[in-house]
Each structure stands twice: as C-alpha cells, then as structure tokens.
Amino acid sequence: MTVPRLVARWARTPDWGRVLLIYGAARLVTTLMMLWFAANQRANAWTGPSPDYAAFASIWDGRWYQIVAFSGYPSDLPVTDDGHIAENAWAFMPVYPGVVRIVMGLTQLPWDVAALVVSVPCGFGAAVVFFTLMREVLDRRTALFAVVLFSVAPVSPILQVAYAESLYLLLLGFALLLVMRRRYLTAIPVIAVMALTRPSGLAFALFLLLHLVHRVWTRSRHPFSLSEFVCLSVAGIVSAVMGVAWLLIAWAVTGSMTAYTDTELAWRSSYVGYGPLVPFEPWIDGANWWAQRWFGVDFGAVALVPILAIVAIGLVSRPARRIGVTLRLWVVSYLVYLLAVFFPQSSTFRLLAPVFPIAGAFAVPRSRAYRVAAVAVSLALQWAWLWACWSVSGYDWTPP
C-alpha cells in the first residue's frame, strides 16, 4: 500500500481506532523488547532459562497474584524467625486475581496466559479511556500525542504482564472521566472496585475533597448546586470507606488490627528494618538510605526539597495548566498519598503510573523535534526499566 493511501486511510480512521493502533504499535515494540530479555533470562526463582513470553510476564508480583487466585488469603499471618510479620498475600488486592481466576474457569487456560488475557485488553481499554479523558481538556491532535506518550511510557510494559495495573488504570481513568463530567454517583461503583484493585481509595477520597473545595470556591463562575454537593460528598465518603475496607477485611479474617499494614511494612524491612507506619516518614528514611548507599552521607528530608520543588513548579507550568484543575488535583492527591505511605525504592517508578494524566502536559509542545525526542527517550527509558527492574539477575533487589 502506498504512503498516500495509508495517509488517506489514517484520515478516515475514527479516533478510537487511531488510539488502538497507536497503543497496539507501542505494545508490539514492548513485546519485542521483552522477548529479547526473556531469551537472555537465566534460570531464576520463577522460571527456567529463556522462558516463553507468558512465563516471563508472570514473574515478580505476578506469582503473588497467582497465589491469591488459587489459595486466597491466609487467616494465620506468617511470621519471621525474629517474630515479625513476613511477606504474604494480604499485600495484594483481590479484584485482579479474582477476574483472572474467572477467566481460567471459563477458558481452562493456565494462569500465565489467562493473566495476559485480562491485562492486555484492559490496557487497550485504558488507552481509549485515557484519550477520552484528554479530549475533555486538550484538542484532538494533542490528545492523540498524549496517547502516544502514555503508550510508550518507561513503565508501560507493566500494562502487558500479570499485574493489576492495566485493569486499575482502566478503572481510574473511567472514574476521573466521570468526576470531570460531574457524574458523581455513577462513579461510586467504579471507585469501589478500583479501591480493591490497587490501593487508592484514600488518595481518591482526598482528590474528591479537594475537588469539592474547588467547586465551592469557584461556584460564582461555575454553579454548584446542593444536589451536586450531596452527590460529591457521598462519593468522597464511599471512597474513604473503601480506602480502609481492605484493612478492615484483613483484620476480620486474621484477628490482627494491623495485618495489612504489617504485611506492607514487611516489604521495606530489607532496607530499613521493621517499625510502625508513620505518615511521611518513609520518604525521609528512604532518602537517608539511598543517600547513604550511593554517597555515604545522610541527606534526609533535604534531598527531597529540590524534587518536590520541581514537581510543584511543573504542576503550575503552562503545559500542566492545559490539563485543567481537576486532573492536577488528582495528581497532587496521589503524590501526597504516595509520600505518606510508600517507601521509595525501585517499585516507585511503577507506583507513579497513576499520575498518567500528566502525559497530557508533556504532549502540549507541538515541535516535531520535541515529540520525536520524547518518544525516543521514553523507549530508551523503557528498555532501561526492563533491564533494571523486570529481568532477574541473581539476587535482585530492584523489583518492578
């Protein structure tokens, strides 16, 4: 087919079709990368040498999701030799492994294949919802390039492996779209399922609170009726309840009020040992740990100041303002939540995926050179992420 005919066919393709083609092309590139890493993968805790794609895509947390799908959650928490709660399945929310288990029952597919049957279509769906979200704030061409950046993002391989992220981003994008369209009650079931897919209920509750404050503040320019106030408040309360629901469920099953938080803290014990969850302290501890490891000194909170300043400046920059207040409030809310409860390590790159609306800001510049460079840099960082975080090399302390 000639180039003019390809251009003409592209021009006739509906927007959703363009999004699927863009995302599909990006996934093809990522698949080729992952196949190369799989072919060169040595035997490890999850696979033998040179595993096939499905097996390679089901390592790391994929095995934990498989454990949940087959065995559920322990009523007796495992304990280490020194008496602390050990890593266990309670750290992983039930929706994704539950969906995969249903697919396995319907199709008789093995776990690793069924997981991809769920993750890959959800990734395509997330791309379509993301484009729809971007069209609320950006023109059509810019929104399409935002989809390109979303599709080739450094951690985008996580959307085609046995992880919950693709399903979660699909739900998150839909929930944000409903909030932007002020369909607060309709968003409630989406928020509820989302909060049991990845930990995010409290972050979304904070977002809805900030959104409510903004609606009240701007009510003279954008009317905010009493019924909308009530609906938004109800959605926020439900989100907050769902944000602690998994903690309460773990407590009810195990008899330990801190079962979930103790389980999550077990994952950072190899860095800073065991201790209680103190909001915002993990990032200070993490800054100290990483500065000590790489530079032999303790920077503590000082090391975070320039990072936080750059983020703050970025969020008020002209390109970021193009994506609107609502989406930026979500980014702020999620980052605050991340700062409050997570310990910074290699998984942090993946945990930043929910700030994906910020791709719209990076899509604003129209320079062709900039856009080509942005895609090239993203693909290079994608390769680096697969090398550093996904492929396994002996004792690996950089999980994805």
TrEMBL record:
- The reply on keyword Membrane is yes
Instruction: Name the Gene Ontology biological process terms.
Output: GPI anchor biosynthetic process
Cellular component terms, GO, for this chain's entry? mannosyltransferase complex; membrane
GO function term, MF aspect, one:
alpha-1,6-mannosyltransferase activity
* Membrane disposition: Multi-pass membrane protein
| Alphabetical UniProt keywords | Endoplasmic reticulum, Glycosyltransferase, GPI-anchor biosynthesis, Membrane, Transferase, Transmembrane, Transmembrane helix
Instruction: Identify the metabolic or biological route this protein is part of.
Output: Glycolipid biosynthesis; glycosylphosphatidylinositol-anchor biosynthesis
Q: Does the keyword Ribosomal protein apply?
A: no
Please report the name of this protein according to its UniProt entry: Mannosyltransferase PIG-V
Q: Which organism is it from?
A: Paramicrobacterium agarici
Upper taxonomic classification of the species?
Answer: Bacteria, Bacillati, Actinomycetota, Actinomycetes, Micrococcales
